[in-house]
Write a structure and sequence with these properties.
The chain is an all-alpha fold. The protein has eleven helices and two strands; from the N terminus they run H-H-H-H-H-H-H-H-E-E-H-H-H.
Length: 221
Amino acid sequence: GRPQRGNARPPLEVNPPLHTAYRSLLRSYFAPSAIAALEDDIRRLIVDHLTPLVRAGGGDFAPGFTYPVPTQVVCAMLRLPKEAVGLVNDLSDQIYLNEDGRNNDQAAIEAAEAALSDFARSVVSERRRSPQDPVVDLISGLIAAEIEGALLTDDQVVEVLRLLFVAGHNSTTSALGICFLALAREPSRQHDLRADPNMIPNAVDEFLRLEAPVMATPRTV
């Protein structure tokens, strides 16, 4: 793999055996049981965002739901304060909107990346001062983790957080948009899924098979 910008962000932008080591460290935090523990909070979050849209009889689903919800879920998963949501969302948007093919503003990207790294570093410093249970807290877990007998440095933890802050919610925002647009275009699908909610997991898989939010990750041979 190769970094898109700046230092490599594990595990996406590193190769085996380092890729495998990071995947092993992170796996438990994304296990079905770990995600299930967040379900009640995520459902409340979803209701909070859907309620004003329902009361208004409609609206723009992207700014009202698909953009804010994934960022809030990632920040909740990382046990960050509520004020982190706006910062992460704004900086991620600055990076996305100024990439090649959009605004093509490399200086704006570098400034946003630097601010995101500074924020990640402040989070790591705070968590070192006040560690949480590493079994359930990903950041504390990384701080306590070892690769090849050596504890991870602040820089290594920061790069993982940089990846989660950006890739951790942008692709989910796109995935939600893909799924709900498909449902909006074919109301019969809504009827089928309401009639049999057990079909929803397979439906999501099929929507994302037909139109994936991330088409490719470049690899260098």
